[in-house]
TrEMBL record:
One of its GO terms (molecular function) is ATP binding. Residues 4-234 form the ABC transporter domain. Keywords: ATP-binding, Cell membrane, Membrane, Nucleotide-binding, Transport. SMART domains: AAA. This is ABC transporter ATP-binding protein. SUPFAM superfamilies: MOP-like, P-loop containing nucleoside triphosphate hydrolases. The keyword Nucleotide-binding applies. It comes from Herbaspirillum rhizosphaerae.
Length: 367
């Protein structure tokens, strides 16, 4: 049985349904990210787990206990919310000790636990300081220590790094994951930053308009996005419109921009003539000499991203975004003609007008 389970959890604010039939089973020690655009229901879901928002329907269980309607303070969860500020009039040590005092932990044990928690976030030398004497990243680590010191069964994080600048944010992502691995606390983090969700989590829950649309490991969400929205929200994607020429076994030939493209590993049910949307990640496209690829294109724009070059290339398939590692080799010039190539297995089916099995072309019919 899973450690934390949400079954058909929903939330209405008046007539507005903020969360709809949310189902999720979290294993002990997992790091889960709730990822989605603004207003999709991430924070509401986290608040319902914390007990700060009531549940309109469904059930939440923690370690076999039904906590759907339990008071927040009886759930014993660790919480780091963006707005859950430190107490300004207390030192770092006092802030971290607060939850232990509430739990009437004896002073000597409290001192030990506070020292351990501060060591965990590398702030053992800063215990006597006040929050105003700390940087944003240090304050964030104090908040984390304060949440972890009570050894909560689940740690809930709502955009915990969003106030930090890009570099510090990246450092804190590594640190957060490192600390979570050491402590092994089951963690659920809300973020709208796809790269943050991908780099930190064991699994990502993608939400759209109150619904869960995909739950998977980061690599699977990136490589096999469940729909058009996810393919562009999680990373960049070139979307190509086409129509099915034929399907034979798990391969299909697709007409796109007057070219015949091969789609691998498709399940059955693609009808000849059906409209499909294909996805091709920018870094999966190769630029070769003009005339040597599947088609030629003309470079229209070039952007320097540091480790990569990003090009816009006009092709018979439309304007494609292409990412090429900055390996010191000659870059492409705007106006230049190039050949475009990719491996068939990197072309993905994003969506299709499917038909019933009876009208689908079977492999036998095509053969
Ligand atoms: N207290 C409330 N009363 C009424 N509607 C609310 C309330 N809180 C949230 N909502 C609505 O519920 C929906 C989900 O909000 P929620 O804050 O969960 O989204 P989110 O995905 O966390 O967004 P963000 O990334 O912007 O924080 C939104 O349409 C929001 O306007």
């Amino acid at each position: 049985m899973s450690f934390l389970t949400l079954t058909n959890v929903s939330k209405f604010y008046g007539d507005t349904q903020a969360v709809s039939s949310f189902n999720l089973s979290v294993e002990k020690g997992e790091f889960i990210s709730l990822l989605g655009p603004s207003g999709c229901g991430k924070t509401t879901t986290l608040q319902m787990i914390a007990g700060f928002e009531s549940v309109s329907g469904g059930r939440i269980e923690l370690d076999g206990r039904d906590i759907t309607h339990a008071k927040p303070n009886t759930r014993g969860l660790g919480i780091v919310f963006q707005t859950y500020a430190l107490f300004p009039h207390m030192t770092v040590e006092q802030n971290v000790a607060f939850g232990l005092e509430m739990r009437k932990i004896p002073a000597a044990e409290r001192r030990d636990k506070v020292a351990q928690a501060l060591a965990l976030v590398h702030l053992e030398k800063h215990g006597k300081r006040y929050p105003r004497e700390m940087s944003g990243g240090q304050r964030q680590r104090v908040a984390l220590a304060r949440a972890l010191v009570i050894q909560p069964p689940v740690l809930l994080l709502d955009e915990p790094l969003s106030n930090l600048d890009a570099k510090l944010r990246e450092e804190m992502q590594f640190e957060l994951r490192d600390i979570q691995r050491k402590v092994g606390t089951t963690t659920i983090m809300v973020t709208h930053d796809q790269s943050e969700a991908m780099s930190i989590s064991d699994r990502v829950v993608v939400m759209e308009a109150g619904h869960v649309t995909q739950v998977d490991r980061p690599l699977s969400v990136y490589e096999h996005p469940a729909n058009r929205f996810i393919s562009t929200f999680v990373g960049k994607a070139n979307l190509l419109e086409g129509s099915v020429l034929r399907q034979a076994g798990d391969h299909a030939d697709i007409d796109a921009g007057g070219m015949t493209l091969t789609l691998e590993a498709v399940d059955s049910g693609l009808r000849s003539g059906a409209q499909v949307l294909l996805g091709l990640r920018p870094e999966k496209i190769k630029c070769v000499a003009a005339g040597k690829g599947r088609c030629d294109g003309q470079v229209s724009q070039r952007f320097f991203l540091g480790s990569q070059w990003m090009y816009s290339i006009v092709t018979p398939l439309g304007e494609l975004t292409v990412l090429i590692a900055n390996d010191g080799a000659d870059m492409l010039e705007p106006g230049q003609s190039v050949g475009i190539d990719w491996n068939d297995h990197n072309l993905r089916l994003v969506s299709a007008n499917r038909t019933t099995a009876a009208t689908a072309i079977s492999a036998a019919e095509v053969a």
